[in-house]
Every structure is written in C-alpha cells, then in structure tokens.
Amino acid sequence: xxxxxxxxxxxxxxxxxxxRVEKDPASIAFAQLAEEYRRAGRVREAIETxxxxxxxxxxxxxxxxxxxxxxxxxxxxxxxxxxxxxVLRTAPENLAALRGLAxxxxxxxxxxxxxxxxxxxxxxxxxxxxxxxxxGEITAQLEPSVRAPKVVDGLSFEEAAAELLAFSSGNGxxxxxxxxxxxxxxxxxxxxxxxxxxxxxxxxxTLEDALPDIPLIVVPPPQxxxxxxxxxxxxxxxxxxxxxxxxxxxxxxEAIVAEREKRNAx
Length: 266
What we know:
Layout: H1 7-23, H2 29-39, H3 43-56, H4 61-73, H5 77-90, H6 95-108, H7 111-124, H8 129-142, E1 151-152, E2 155-156, H9 157-171, H10 196-200, H11 207-210, H12 236-264
Antiparallel strand pairs: 1-2
C-alpha cells in the first residue's frame, strides 16, 4: 500500500505552503515547501526554494538535506556531496544525509566508501530491508563468496606453493617426490675389558695377521751364480761368496717390502 499523496492532495499542500512563504519570506515553512516540490518531481523548484530560504536560515539542516537530495536527483553529485557532508558534520546520525552520501559514492563506483556509509545508516535504521539488500549486493561485489582455487598441474595454488617451499628449503627433493627412507646408522659394539685369563696369554702377531688384506707376494730368489770349485776353509773367496748371498737376500727382502708398499698406497 503506497503512502504517497494523490496528485490533487500534493497540489493543495504545495499551494498552501507557497502562500505561507510568500506572505512571510522569513518563515521556515520554505523547507517543507521545498521537500514537497522534490517529492512531486519538481526538483528544480525544490533547489531554488532551498537556496532562497537557506540564505536567511543557513543552519536549518532539514533544508540542507532536501537541497542535497534534490541535487543528487539532478546528477549534480559534487554539490550534493558538499551539502550532505555539511549536514553530517553537525548531525552525524542524520539518516537521510547518510543514505544520500552513500548513494553518491555508489553511483561513482566507490563501493568501499558506499558500503561504509550504508552500514553506518543501518546502525540507525535496524532491520531496514532496503539497506540490508543494497549492503548485501555491494558486499557480494567486493568479496565473492565462492572463489575457485587456481590449479597448477593438478595441484591447487596453495598446494603448489607448499611443495615449492619444501623444495627450496634445501632438502634437494623434487616437488611431489617422497623423501627416501633414512638408513639407520650402524651401532658399534660396546668395548669390554679383556678377561684376566686372556691378559696372561702370550701375544703373538705374524706378518699375515698384521697385513691381512695384502696378498703375499712371492718374489723368486735371485739366481745363484755358477758354482765355483770349493776353496779351502778360511780363504778370502769363501767370505766374498757369503757377502754376495747376504746382499742378494737383502735385495729380495727390499723388493718384497717395496711391492707391498706400492699395493698399499692409496
């Protein structure tokens, strides 16, 4: 059911207020007359009436609200914003000014500012269906409720970022690969003190025990020189022969040691 007055009733009300203002130009009835003009769609007459009356009564806030809303309807957004902000500086809870300023920002596409003013207006007009509806629309534009995650090679963006972070942390694994199982370290057997019986036993180490990993190298003995006729005991030749045999044996041993050292070298 509409509460708007019939055209005849509007015309009668406008005519009564117009006569009052004409009779007393200082009357504050100009504000009511301007609002009736605006509601009847006679926006330009509303603006002129407000400007004339505000010249006498500059602090009349209801007239400034009407002026701001009339300017908004004609598309003069800057002038409308100036008038409505002037009202809110004096009366921050003025619902009509809040809604008008929110609509100005909304028309300009300034959704964050519009949403802030609409929400402030809703604080003074709880459960206003129109305000709740427009707030819901702007909120949906600014913050979509459903946002599909970006998929990269079968992974969402969040999953791909997590795997890349794990790879760059220094573990050397490619994203998506499982880390190899850790190989348990060999635990050395605990050392124990030798028993008294073992300490009393003689300790003997052979060459094969000392060098178990080096194969025994068999170096053929040096060829014996051709046998010479035996000499008498105590002769010089017998001593020289012994020296030669000892020297040959030493060379043989040196050859064995040199070969072992060569094989044992890294």
